[in-house]
Amino acid sequence: MKVDAVCRVFTFKEGMLSALAHDLEIEVGTLSVEVAEDLAIDARFDATSLRVLHAMSDGRATTALGDGDKRKIEKTIAGDVLDVRKYGEIRFTAPAPTPEGDGYRYRGELQLHGATRSLEVVSKKQGDKQIAEIVLHQPDFGIKPYSAMLGTLKIKPDVRVRVEVTR
Fold it and tell me: Which residue segment(s) compose the domain that 78 sits in?
């Protein structure tokens, strides 16, 4: 059964010139999440559909970025970070989960940037949604975190991914 889902990616700045950069909230615009009767998951995320929603400061959205800035960042993510022409799809598959509290523990595989890694994700119930958050270490998938100005301006190698599924 196909379910409604939203996926957001949060990136965080670091480096000597980090004051010039922004933490970001990015949305995956196109995704498909299939949940079987036994709650096994097959989720596909279109890496070409990442869209910068806004810059973040202290966990809150800001208006620091204009539309042109957002498009430039999206182009850099697509071409320089994720190489979406070669790796256009991100996929997570997991067999039936183990119940945990009001959510589930999934043990599956994430295919990202040409690498496949085992991944454990725990969801929690919030209203009519199951919400899962996980920190991904980009180098584990062969991704070099964005860096500029000889490394004095860069994005931390860990990004936070949040998926909300409504059944």
Answer: 2-166
How far apart are the two ends of the chain, measured CA to CA in Å? 9
Angle at 118 between CA 87 and CA 43, to 5 degrees: 55
**Overall number of domains in the chain:** 1
- For the entire predicted model, the pTM comes to 0.92
With beta carbons less than 8 A apart as the criterion, state whether 130 and 103 touch: yes
Q: What is the pLDDT of residues 120-145, one digit of tens each?
A: 999 999 999 999 999 999 999 999 99
Residue 16 pLDDT level (bands cut at 50, 70, 90): low
Tokens for 78, please give them: 């697509």
Q: What is the CATH number of the domain that holds 76?
A: 2.40.128.110
Containing 60, the helix (H) or strand (E) segment is strand 60-62
